[in-house]
Amino acid sequence: MSQHPNSFRALPVDRVGSTITVPGDKSISHRALMLGAVAEGRTIVHGFLASEDCLATQTAMEALGVSIRRVPGEPVQIDGVGLGGLKAPSRVLDLGNSGTAIRLLMGLLAGQPFACELTGDASLRQRPMERVAVPLRKMGAPIETGAGGKPPVRLRGGVRLRGIDYALPMASAQVKSAVILAALGAAGRTSVHSPGPSRDHTERMLQTMGVALTQSSQGAGHTVALEGPVKLRGIEIAVPGDFSSAAFFIVAGCIGARDGLTIRNVGMNPTRTGLLTILRAMGADIEIRNERGVGAEPVADLLVRQSALRGIDVPPELVPLSIDEFPILFVAAAAASGTTTVTGAEELRKKETDRIAVMARGLETVGIGVEELPDGARISGGRMRGGTVDSRGDHRIAMAFAVASLLASDPIEIGNTAEVATSFPNFLEVAAAAGLNVHAGSDVR
Questions:
Q1: Which of the listed residues 238, 267, 284 is the one where a domain comes to its end?
Q2: Which helix (H) or strand (E) holds 80?
Q3: Pick the catalytic residue: 121, 200, 324, 390?
Q4: 25 in catalytic set
Q5: Scanning 118, 199, 278, 396, which has its CA 20 to 30 A from the CA of 320?
Q6: What tens digit of pLDDT does each residue of 312-321 get?
């Protein structure tokens, strides 16, 4: 169980500023552990995010027979065992709150010679898994999901997977990555067609580990293909700052950084940065500085200044490039003049919570007008009062309402915040460095 405080008290402040850094990218850290584990030779990971989600992945890989050395302040060392070197676990693999971990492991373990079972906490056990199981079954994997297509997931193993040509019903990095990971050990060619963009960290990392991928685009669609089976080689990986974590402070800067707020070493993968395009369309003053490459990933420093935001209709093509940032985008919409409309974001209802509903109720509690739509919301900017908000154990909603204190006239009490440790374990420290006044509920006098 998390030791992270289970409530926040966010007191109003009128400005933020300074120079901060955010922790390493969660998506890249998960993938570094999994791919390093099945590579040949040692993989060294700099900037690994030691959050609860990523530590659940580490524990799972260790249970599968992989040696991982993690010492605070030092790079993580993973001694790869190759695709055929994983061992049958002696227990059920518990992935905690991590949808990324369980879905990617479904792909990685689908073609193994042993059986295993994957599960998670109460929240994860309510999330859909059939979207991953369906293409893996087409590859020959014997997979069973629990009631309603939810965890636990049972993989019987013992079969040789075959390559497939698969069209994703909707753009999803997790489903795409699960199929790609299964294809590493499958016989023949696997092609995955996506109707739109999704994050490509898996493809970038595999290419640096020596895997020959082919990629092509046609209109909004994208195809990635590989010929299996393949071998991966161990490498050094530098994990940039997580853009999704930086997003909270980007919006905080737009609301209250009169003299500017700098966020250093932020991952700028173009499949992740749709929020920047949306905020700039709303009038945000965001300067990208010192652009550079760190391994396979682009990185930059961001300078954000207080901006007069205005409401917009969010372009549908930007939704998949910013889906994880929508809770904090809703706060930016509350700070904007006029109305912001989001549609095409039904995926938000299948995250750690129904993020559309929980954000709508929370914003209404603190005085913001919200019209909930089946696939989004219509948010009217306005004055925000204090109040008590239940984040429902969703880390991104908890952090979004902490930033909302910049708009509030009175404190915002935020409940069920322990899951912040799944992605941003030092959020309170970074928030304080930026100038926010957010404390563990029991720490406020």
A1: 238
A2: strand 76-81
A3: 324
A4: no
A5: 118
A6: 999 988 888 8
